[in-house]
Amino acid sequence: MKIGELAQRSGLSASRIRFYEAQGLIRQVERQANGYRRYPSQVLRTLQIIQCAQQSGFTLDELKRLLPDATTGAVDHDEVVGSLQRKIEQIETMQRHLAQNKAQLLELIDNIGARPDGMGCEANAERVLASLKSS
Fold it and tell me: Measuring CA to CA, which residue among 59, 55, 56, 53 is closest to residue 23?
């Protein structure tokens, strides 16, 4: 299939597909005599894998190690499983950090909202900043 059809079927722009090709993520591209790219149908599946992996936080370099080998088409099962487990660990670490950040922000909101009656915004800001420094 030509790049226009692949772009339409994948929902990606032709320039994004060419970028993935330049990065070595799409390797099965043939050139016709007129110079047009011709993609086999399995490239659509590769693009779906790339999109899914990027949404899960994988970098393009990480993806290169997960996709089938360019010459043999083989996939290193242990590498794929290990990479997925490492990504889960990274996500869990980020979740812990985000939960800590959320708790701090909620505490800050409570602290700002606990402004004593009659205290102006500027004095309240100084009070909140002072409490942050002492924490």
Answer: 59
Residue given tokens 């790219």 in the structure block: 37
- Determine the pLDDT at residue 97: 97
Give the distance from CA 115 to its chain's centroid.
40
Cβ-contact 57, 95 below 8 angstroms? no
pLDDT confidence band for 66 (50 / 70 / 90): confident
End-to-end CA distance of the chain: 62
User: What domain range is 92 assigned to?
Assistant: 77-135
83-132 pLDDT, tens digit each:
899 999 999 999 999 999 999 999 999 999 999 999 998 999 999 999 88
Task: Please state the domain count of the chain.
Answer: 2
Same domain, 3 and 67: yes
Q: What is the pLDDT of residue 110?
A: 92
Joined together, the tokens standing for residue 42 give 């399995």
